[in-house]
Amino acid sequence: MSLIVNGKQVHGPADPRVSLLDHLREDLHLTGTKKGCNQGACGACTVLVDGERILSCLALAVQYDGRAITTIEGLAGGDALHPLQAAFVEHDGFQCGYCTPGQICSAIGMASELERGVPSHVSADLAADAQWTREEIQERMSGNLCRCGAHNGIVDAIRATFATEASA
Amino acid sequence: MTPFDYARPIDAADALRRGAIAGTAYLGGGTNLVDLMRETVARPERLVDVSGLPAAIEETEDGGLLIAAAVRNTALAEHRIVRARYPLLSRAILAGASAQIRNMATVGGNLLQRTRCTYFYDTEGSRCNKRQPGSGCDAREGFNRIHAVLGGSDACVATHPSDMCVALAALDATVHVDGPAGPRTIPFADFHRLPGDRPDRDTNLELGDLVTAVALPPLPAGTRSTYRKVRDRASYAFALVSVATTLELEGDRIKQVRIAFGGVAHKPWRAMRAEAALLDRPATHQAFLDAAAAEFVDARPLRDNAFKPALASRTLAAVLEELAMGDAA
Ligand SMILES: Cc1cc2nc3c(=O)[nH]c(=O)nc-3n(C[C@H](O)[C@H](O)[C@H](O)COP(=O)(O)OP(=O)(O)OC[C@H]3O[C@@H](n4cnc5c(N)ncnc54)[C@H](O)[C@@H]3O)c2cc1C
Ligand code: FES
Ligand code: FES
Question: Is the reported ipTM for this assembly greater than 0.95?
Answer without folding.
Answer: yes
